[in-house]
Amino acid sequence: KISVLLFTFIICTSAFSFTAYALESGTIYPQASEYIRSTNVTLKVEGSDGKLLLENKIGATRTVDKLGIKTLEIQTKVNGYWRKYETLVKDSYRYDANTFIYDLYYYGTPGTEYRTYVEFYVEYDGGSETKIVTSLPVTAE
What we know:
Blueprint: H1 2-15, E1 19-22, E2 28-31, E3 36-45, E4 51-78, E5 81-107, E6 113-124, E7 127-134, E8 138-139
Antiparallel strand pairs: 1-2, 3-4, 4-5, 4-6, 6-7, 6-8
C-alpha cells in the first residue's frame, strides 16, 4: 500500500506543475501565471439612464516593464452569442509598474444586456503574457 501511495504521489506531483513566487520573507505561494498576480473586471449599473461603470484592474507578480490593457470591448448578446458592440480602449499601458487600474463610465441603452471583454497584457525582461477576462453581464436600466 505504501509503495502504491508513494507512486501515485510522485505521478500526481510531476504531472501538475505550477509557477511559484517568493516574498521577501522567503514564503512561497503558488501562482497560475509567471507575470500576472491577479485580475479583476467588474461591470456595474450606475443609474437609470443606461449609465454603467467598468472597473478593470491587473496586478503583476513584480514591477514589470509594461502593464495594461490591449483591448477593452463592450459586448451585447446577439441571437444568444456575445458580440463586440464597441471597442472602448486600445493599447493603454503603464511602464515600470506592478498595478494597472482603468475605470470608466459607459452609457448604454436601457433594457440592453452588456458585458465587458478585457485583454490584459504584461511584458517583462523580453517575455510577455496576455490574459482575457470577461465581466458578468448586467442589464442597463
